[in-house]
Design a protein that fits this description.
Layout (H helix, E strand, L loop, with lengths): L6 H17 L9 E11 L3 E3 L7 E3 L4 E10 L9 E3 L18 E4 L13 H7 L4 E4 L21 H19 L4 E6 L1 H12 L4 E7 L11 H8 L3 H10 L4 H6 L3 H9 L11 H13 L9 H5 E2 L3 E2 L16 E6 L6 H12 L19 E6 L6 H4 L1 H12 L7 E3 L15 E2 L1
Length: about 425
């Protein structure tokens, strides 16, 4: 059994390692950045499942908050410490409106949080002209994790989406931003698209990283899974279908061992000078605080193997976006980029496709661009932070990233090589 580190301390130590890695050039580039973490009040009244009322839904009375990190370049002025937890950060409105650029907001995937972006935040602050933020979505990380009088798994897809999206929208309002650029990893990408559905006038760019929930679930998928894994598959399917959270499984005992082995996958990457910091952060995220909506998002939004219950490929054609939807994937991402490519091509030929009936003639479908990052799989923020920084910054600057491949500043075979972007 490993030593337990609080989630707050684990996040601090992981963000600190990311700052130091960029200061010392361990990622292949340098940036002297500063991170301020703070909590943003997002009000009460969120709907939660309840077994005690007719209809099974109740409005929460407790006041909730969204944990936030803001990364910017250091000015060298007195008191400009590299990593600060600030309780009164929102009181200084000038710090939030120091640039005319639309602020960028990073959203994590399942079972994760702000810390997953630790290796790329300083580089993003150096590359992007606007303010750079990362948030723990409601029910996740160090944001409020409200309990419920019923099972979160009783939520419909729409109710679950509304819970998360309402939090993002209230966060935007509390921060005083007219528009935001949303960049979401995995299920964070799913929520970025969902937010753009609900609040199109408050989104400038949407960028997804290894987006979950794009395709339909293949016909007969579970039967094929049972055939391939006759002993394991029935158990996995049953646990998923009854809504057992993987968070609870980790709390039953295997957490330290599992996350120790999981984090070791990235041991040896130069920016992870102490891999235990990543292990401690992931373990604390899964085993501390309440198992709230974030811990059950796998079931409420997705079916087995991360196929969406309401697939995005049927919803993206109806988005009203002023800029292309950029979809970024690692070269070995298990979220298959072929589905995004197929959607891109389908939208480009809407006139000849039955999906054309889903759009009014005066509202053309959005453009989709698909880019890839070398030396990375699904967890690109950990595996190739500079490649991801290059791709995101290009997308937010309006550069066409479709069919582009980003190497980044570091690779196992060529530690000093940089390719900003090459066409496939």
């Amino acid at each position: 059994m490993g030593q337990t580190v609080s989630l707050h301390d684990a996040e601090h130590r992981l963000l600190e390692m990311g700052l130091q890695s960029w200061q010392n050039g361990l990622v292949g580039a340098t940036a002297d950045a500063r991170i301020v973490t703070f909590d943003v009040p997002v009000g009460s009244g969120y709907l939660a499942p309840s077994a005690k009322v007719t209809g099974g839904v109740v409005a929460l009375e407790e006041e909730l908050h969204i944990h936030t990190a803001r990364c910017s370049l250091r000015t060298g002025e007195g008191g400009d410490a590299p990593l600060v937890a600030a309780k009164d950060f929102l009181a200084n409105r000038e710090t939030l409106t120091a640039t005319d650029e639309v602020p960028m907001v990073l959203m994590h995937g399942y079972g994760s949080g702000i810390g997953i972006f630790s290796a790329m935040l300083p580089g993003m602050a150096a590359k992007y002209n606007g303010a750079v933020y990362a948030i723990d979505t409601l029910g996740c990380g160090l944001s409020s994790r409200p309990t419920a009088e019923g099972y979160w798994t009783d939520f419909s897809v729409r109710q679950a989406e509304d819970f998360f999206v309402t939090g993002i929208e209230r966060w935007r309002q509390a921060m005083g931003f007219e528009k935001i650029n949303l960049v979401g990893h995995s299920i964070g990408g799913y929520l970025a698209v969902t937010y753009a559905e609900r609040h199109p006038t408050h989104v400038d760019h949407v960028v997804t990283i290894g987006c979950a929930g794009v395709p339909d679930k293949p016909e007969g998928f579970e039967d094929k899974l049972r055939s391939r894994f006759p002993y394991l598959a029935p158990v996995a399917i049953s646990l998923w279908n009854i809504g057992v959270s993987p968070f609870n499984v980790m709390r039953w005992g295997p957490g330290h061992t599992f996350f120790n082995r999981y984090a070791r996958r990235w041991e040896g990457l130069p920016w992870f000078t102490e891999i235990d910091r990543l292990k401690d952060y992931l373990h604390a995220n899964w085993t501390q605080h309440e198992v709230s909506a974030g811990g059950y998002a796998h079931f409420t939004l997705l079916s087995l193997a991360a196929y969406a219950r309401d697939p995005l490929h049927l919803r993206i054609p109806n988005l009203t976006l002023g800029n292309p939807l950029r979809m970024i994937y690692g070269e070995t991402d298990w979220m298959n980029p072929d589905h995004a490519v197929a959607l891109r091509d389908k939208l480009a030929h809407m006139k000849d496709d039955k999906l054309a009936q889903m759009k009014d003639a005066s509202q053309p479908p959005p453009t989709v661009e698909v880019a890839r990052i070398r030396h990375g799989g699904h967890n690109i923020p950990l595996e190739n932070p500079t490649g991801l920084v290059e791709a995101i910054s290009a997308a937010l600057c309006g550069v066409v990233v479709d069919n582009m491949v980003y190497d980044g500043m570091w690779s196992p075979s060529e530690p000093e090589t940089s390719t900003a972007g090459t066409s496939e």
